[in-house]
Amino acid sequence: MGEMLQVRGLTKKFGGFTAVNEVAFDLDEGEILGLIGPNGSGKSTTFNLIAGALPPTAGTITLEGRDITGLVPTRVCHKGVARTYQIPRPFRKLTILENVALAAYFGADGSISREEAWRRAEDALDLTQLPVDGRARVDGLGAAGLKKLELARALATQPRLLLADESLGGLDEKEMDQAADMLSHIREQRGITIIWVEHIMGVLMRVVDRCIVLDHGEIIAAGLPHEVAHDPKVVEVYLGTDAEAVQTQVGGQASAETVGA
Ligand SMILES: Nc1ncnc2c1ncn2[C@@H]1O[C@H](COP(=O)(O)OP(=O)(O)OP(=O)(O)O)[C@@H](O)[C@H]1O
């Protein structure tokens, strides 16, 4: 397995405020990495830096051995990185298929035929279990369906690295589990490497290979899900609540500190 992504010294300052501070991690091809942390910990900013939506103040981002630091989002997309947005904003007047075909077409910078864009769209709809029927409308989709559409639009650009800003907060427990299984399925079927950003720890821990935890813009823990869930620093920032539920789910031996926490 080759290296997909290398992040070093990644820092973002907004005026005098440091939102992301010296973040560094590696990601292997085919891995699912969870990026978690409480509100305001710097998850979205880190994500936006990798996707090119924000220029970093310092640090480097290397994709498959090539420096992509500071490239604009369309250029990053053409290098094989796709992202989803926390708040889906589809074209409501277009059908589901049209929305996804447009993403395929523009994601490829118009270098593919319309027929190829439709084909890629159908494939992405199939992968996300959305109706491939050309008449199905966006209006009929609920919160979970809109998340799938967001995922389908990203997948239609045929990325090698998917940045999934899932934020499953609006979904019920069953829908959250299905969304998690879907990411796992996408990795298995297509070998796509995934960074999954999520505020809720529990649902993510079941499918990620590794995770990193941010707090105040810095990595406070990194490792296997059960290691991270038992890390006293992680338990502290999540005030025990979510971490306890996760420990039950992922198992593993609790450390002396967390037992007493
Ligand atoms: N454009 C901006 N200008 C100034 N401050 C910003 C900007 N974007 C983010 N911040 C600040 O940077 C910090 C990190 O924000 P970020 O959105 O990355 O956190 P997050 O972990 O994604 O939070 P959430 O789970 O709430 O989405 C926050 O304190 C936020 O207010």
TrEMBL record:
The keyword rRNA-binding does not apply. InterPro entries: AAA+_ATPase, ABC_AA/LPS_Transport, ABC_transporter-like_ATP-bd, BCA_ABC_TP_C, P-loop_NTPase. SUPFAM superfamilies: P-loop containing nucleoside triphosphate hydrolases (SSF52540). The keyword ATP-binding applies. Keywords: ATP-binding, Nucleotide-binding, Transport. This is Amino acid/amide ABC transporter ATP-binding protein 1, HAAT family (TC 3.A.1.4.-). One of its GO terms (molecular function) is ATP hydrolysis activity. GO terms for cellular component: plasma membrane. It holds the Pfam family ABC_tran. Residues 5-241 form the ABC transporter domain.
